[in-house]
Specification:
This protein has 339 residues and is α/β, with parallel strands linked by helices. It folds into three domains: 99 residues, Rossmann fold (3-Layer(aba) Sandwich); 81 residues, Dna Ligase, domain 1 (2-Layer Sandwich); 116 residues, D-amino Acid Aminotransferase, Chain A, domain 1, CATH 3.30.470. The chain is 33% helix and 26% strand. The protein is built from twelve helices and 16 strands. The strands form three sheets. A six-stranded antiparallel β-sheet has the order 15-14-11-12-13-16. Helix 8 links the parallel strand 8 and strand 9. Helix 1 packs across helix 12. The longest helix is centred in the first third of the chain and has 15 residues. The chain is globular.
Length: 339
């Protein structure tokens, strides 16, 4: 069966490697495309193709359809333009290609808009942090006045972002130079932030939120159109170099299953939580593989292979190893030669 992974996040390297390790019967021929002909993933895939850059979403989808025809793709696992491609399933099915999208277009649009996602999420077991949405300096001051009365520490982040880009804790005591000298990552001076906002006028949609002080959890999952097939919960260490602990907390798994059902999640996805007073609070859903997918798979289930095999042949009868709860995992970088 011919499977295509187009340009995606760096975790696609780990995913293809894991699939090939598990696919001892050689069920799948893995194709990968990337604009970079020196991509390290080219060494892992059975076939590699260079894909174009600069295409708008409609033109890119047309290119993907032509690619699927030319290369006889039976399963397409999209990374680039995944939301737009989710709306085009019927066009791909008409040429014999099934698309493994993480959710419908509507649900992907909701998940990527954190302001709307937080406002519409009802998850009593792991509620979202209290937040306010703002798009100008006056809106920030109104939000700050409302939240600072109830929370000792606040943070900001964009409503649309990945990898935590744009996230910062508001520091009320130190200026930017002091934060820089202290090596305080992901912190910004409140005074400097305010001064900057006043010069910007309007800007992209931002969130002001209560800062959650507790431990962070990352849950790597396989879904089957709203049914949680399996999940591995990683508890991140607050100590550098200490790795992560597999911690299959029942409350976090229950919250994850509810989110999976509510949004019809499918294939591989990731959910992030952080504690406040020992209670998990939802941070976000990532409708894609996380950067830590390899660490999750050390705990037992080969998530990329399970997701692909289940999508291709159905999950009934598929053997899924139990999660080795309580083990500590870590990731080690290794050098490779580029072809």
């Amino acid at each position: 069966m011919r499977v295509w992974f187009n340009r995606s996040f760096s975790s696609v390297h780990t995913a293809i490697d894991l699939i090939r390790q598990a696919d001892t019967a050689e069920r799948f021929t893995i194709i990968h495309s990337n604009p970079n002909p020196k991509s390290p993933v080219a060494r892992l895939a059975h076939e590699f193709q260079v894909e174009p850059t600069g295409l708008a979403a409609p033109d890119y989808i047309d290119w993907c359809l032509a690619f699927c025809r030319e290369h006889r793709v039976e399963i397409f696992v999209p990374g680039r333009e995944a939301t737009a491609i989710a709306a085009a399933h019927a066009r791909f099915e008409a040429i014999g290609t099934r698309v493994q999208s993480a959710a419908s277009e509507d649900n992907l649009l909701l998940i990527h808009d954190k302001a709307r996602f937080y406002a519409e999420t009802d998850l009593p077991g792991a509620p979202v942090a209290e937040f306010r949405h703002f798009e100008d300096a006056a809106g920030f001051e109104q939000a700050y006045d409302a939240l600072r009365r109830r929370h000792a520490k606040l943070c900001v982040k964009p409503a649309h972002s990945i990898y935590g880009l744009g996230f910062a804790v508001l520091d009320e005591e130190r200026n930017s130079a002091e934060l820089l000298m202290a090596g305080a990552e992901y912190h910004v001076s409140l005074a400097d932030f305010r001064a900057g906002l006043s010069k910007l006028g309007s800007f992209r949609s931002m969130l002001l939120m209560e800062f959650l002080e507790g431990r962070e959890y990352s849950v790597d999952c396989v879904g089957d159109n709203g049914r949680l097939v399996t999940a591995v919960v990683r508890r991140k260490s607050q100590q550098t170099g200490a790795g992560q602990r597999i911690d299959q907390r029942a409350d976090i798994l229950d919250a994850t299953a509810r989110l999976c059902a509510a949004h019809g999640l499918n294939g591989i996805f990731n959910v992030q939580f952080r504690e406040a007073a020992g209670v998990p609070r939802l941070l976000e859903i990532n409708p894609r593989m996380s950067g830590g997918i390899g660490m999750a798979c050390v705990a037992g289930p080969n998530l990329p292979y399970i997701a692909l095999r289940g999508f291709a042949e159905g999950f009934d009868g598929l053997s899924i190893p139990p999660v080795r709860d309580g083990i500590r995992v870590a990731e080690v970088a290794r050098a490779v030669e580029l072809t």
